[in-house]
From TrEMBL:
The chain crosses the membrane at residues 69-90, 102-122, 131-148, 160-181, 201-223, 235-255. The lineage of its organism: Bacteria, Pseudomonadati, Planctomycetota, Planctomycetia, Pirellulales. The keyword Hydrolase does not apply. It comes from the Bacteria. This is Lipoprotein. Keywords: Lipoprotein, Membrane, Transmembrane, Transmembrane helix. It comes from Rhodopirellula europaea 6C.
Length: 287
């Protein structure tokens, strides 16, 4: 067989393979399928004006970008509502949801809708992770579009819309806690990330914080006597509790998005753990 024929056959095989890959991509629904399909590409093939490595990089970046967008949205929201509101002459509200009834309504609604859209676009490794993202997306949009009744206790609403808001808030924080406690540590193992122990520790600490804050807010609304509530409201208890929960989920998503600040934090944790182990405290060096 001549070299020309070999080149022709190689081109035909390559083109056929990329046609198959294109068909596969139209049916992709999970990150695992993306990874498996890309890994099946022949080493010697490359798409027109591109390479399989570049294509994989783009897919990885798209997932990292979504994670970072979700994390940054959560990081910025409390800052804009709280300190940003003060600069505009808006007092700290009893809770973040109350900002719907202030000039910062568009910021509150827009940020939560954006988080909802990002979660809806996010695809994980299996159906459970996809459903978690979808439920979180619906909950985030529910918080945004179904406002809390003005000047009301979150558990004592005057309208059905207000109760939908309260329910959506509980579901939203629960799904985000589930991501940090279950999905992210497991996904880090699948992605063979470095310092698994430290990453899992950070994710689970964030998830546990979200759960504790959610339970604390529930206890505040269900169990605390009204006179105590009035005293705590004077210090905007719910607002600060929500701020901690939102930043906990934001830090988890930013860490999963591998931004440089969180990567430095992971390295510091890993180094500290290494120093402790070297001093013979009997801690096992396994994630």
């Amino acid at each position: 067989m001549s070299s020309a024929e070999c080149g022709s056959n190689g081109t035909l095989d390559t083109n056929q393979r990329w046609k198959e890959i294109g068909t596969d991509f139209r049916h992709l629904s999970t990150a695992a399928t993306v990874q498996e399909t890309l890994m099946s590409l022949p080493d010697s093939t490359s798409p027109p004006n591109d390479s399989s490595a570049t294509m994989m990089d783009r897919l990885v970046l798209s997932y990292l970008d979504i994670r970072r967008a979700i994390g940054l949205s959560g990081l910025v929201l409390p800052l804009v509502l709280g300190p940003g509101g003060l600069l505009l002459g808006i007092e700290i509200q009893e809770n973040m949801s109350s900002y719907y009834h202030t000039p910062l309504r568009d910021v509150f609604v827009g940020t939560l809708c954006a988080i909802g859209i990002f979660l809806f676009c996010y695809r994980g490794y299996d159906r459970i992770e996809n459903w978690t993202a979808n439920i979180g997306a619906v909950a985030a949009i529910g918080i945004a579009l179904f406002p809390l009744d003005y000047g009301s206790d979150p558990l004592i609403q005057k309208s059905f819309v207000g109760y939908v808001h309260t329910f959506s808030g509980g579901v939203f924080f629960t799904t985000l806690a589930f991501y940090s406690l279950y999905h992210f540590p497991r996904d880090s193992r699948r992605e063979a990330e470095s310092h698994l122990f430290e990453r899992s520790l950070a994710f689970r600490a964030s998830g546990l914080t979200i759960l504790l804050i959610t339970f604390a807010m529930g206890g505040y609304m269900l169990l605390v006597p009204q006179d105590w509530k009035d005293w705590l409201n004077g210090y905007n208890f719910l607002f600060w509790a929500e701020w901690i929960a939102v930043w906990s989920f934001a830090s988890s998503w930013l860490a999963k998005g591998r931004i440089i600040v969180t990567e430095i934090g992971v390295e510091v944790l890993a180094y500290s753990r290494k120093m402790v182990l070297q001093h013979g405290l009997g801690i096992k060096d396994n994630p």
